[in-house]
Amino acid sequence: MKKILIPFAVCMGLAAFGVSADTTVELTLDSPGANVMTDTVNVLELNVSPFIENGNTYVPLSAICDSFGISKYYDSETGLITITKDDKIIEFVVGSTEAGANGSLLALDSPITIQNDEFIVPLRATAENLGYSVEYVASLNTILISDKLNVMTINGYPVSFDEFALYYNINKAAIPTKDVTDEQITEYKAQLKDQLINMLKQNYTLYNNAINGGFGALFQDPSATLQIKEQSDSVYTNYKDITTLKSVIASTMEKSQIASNFSKIIESAVKPADEEINKIYNTDYISAKHILIPIINTETGEALTEDDQKAALKTATEALNKVKKGGDFDALMKEYSKDTGLANYPDGYSFTKGQMTPEFETASYNLKENEVSELVKTSYGYHIIKRTALLPITEDLKSFIQQNLQKEKFSEYLQGVIDKSDIQINEDLINTLN
Q: What is the DSSP string of 134-188?
């Protein structure tokens, strides 16, 4: 049997590119080029463009061998192609629909062919049996092949190092570097990594459940595809100092979009009953009306002059004295209050804790029904607050409470799914990012 070793210069075509154990390859369907990313991005010209046939993607073998520096042998007499990488061996035969991969027999949908002096092989059967990950990026019609380790797996689904590094390098730009110690910067980076881990747990749990539940087709929307393409172009342009491939950016956005769409489906499926909404309103909310004498320009938000603020205090004191002498609160509110919402809310506001300024909230909750406060100063001005009976719930408030309940129930659902998931984190790999 005569075996011919493909010339070194062809098989190891990226030696000058510095092929390492950290390589990601970007192929575009029906395009004769490959972007190979190690420390930098280099272009490898292909004699045959990758294509899809009968649902399978086919590529010239050189797209894999030359990108990752893999040896291949060809026996011209038998048509046997042998590909070796460490302890992994794949054997194809030109014209055959059978192949061998690491001691197992593979059935191929189409025979191995030769086009323009290139061996045309099925991408997944070749790359995955060599230990590489393969991912299709719908928005760009591209394929990513990588030998990089994963930073996380969630129920077996991988989170790539490239994706984590993309998030990390973009967000790292917001870490302060002036007037901080090296120890503080290190702590900020550690906090950022923890935040990204938690975010990716949520995103990938949702994404995984969406795909498993058949909701991946949510993304098959031309307008959404175009939006992802435009956004990835923008990120790629704005972060040129971050060495990555555009397909990594688009892939990250696709998964995030599917996860977001799926979360909306889950939230909308959880509809609180009216009884539950009314119970929260009657238990947690109070109503109050007020006279506001502002110490800011209500249009611009800018603080008034010191003299104008003194005049505001004098006016507020005058209004309060009239209230204390038995003046009609509603009539005085119409006369004195400069609250821009008065026209829309003449009977006052219904609110719960955390919605008003702390001073206004504390004073309101400390009042009994129909009791009036002393002057309460906030960043907006001087308030005279009257607590009222709880107003009837409005449709806007009902919708607001419903949305908050849906978000709470969704968070409980998501945390429950995360808690039940098998999540593996490669902290050593994550800590290689500086």
A: EEEETTTTEEEEE-PPEEEEETTEEEEHHHHHHHHHHHHTTS--SS--HHHHHHH
Look up the CATH number of the domain holding residue 311: 3.10.50.40
Report yes or no on 260 lying in a domain.
yes
Q: pLDDT tens digits for 300-324?
A: 999 999 999 999 999 999 999 999 9
The helix/strand/coil state of 105 is: strand
406 in any annotated domain? no
Element (H, E) at 28: strand 24-28
> Structure pTM?
0.71
What does pLDDT average to over the chain? Answer: 89
**Domain range for residue 111?**
4-137
The total number of structural domains in the chain stands at: 3
Tell whether 354 is covered by a domain: yes
H or E element that contains 44: strand 41-45
Structure tokens at 355: 């919605």
b/e 210-223 (16+ beta carbons within 10 angstroms → b):
bbeeebbebbeeee
Task: Give the side-chain half-sphere CA count within 13 A for 209.
Answer: 19
Estimate to the nearest angstrom the gap between the alpha carbon of 401 and the chain centroid.
26
369-380 pLDDT per residue, tens: 999 999 999 999
Closest CA to 375 of 316, 333, 324, 422: 316
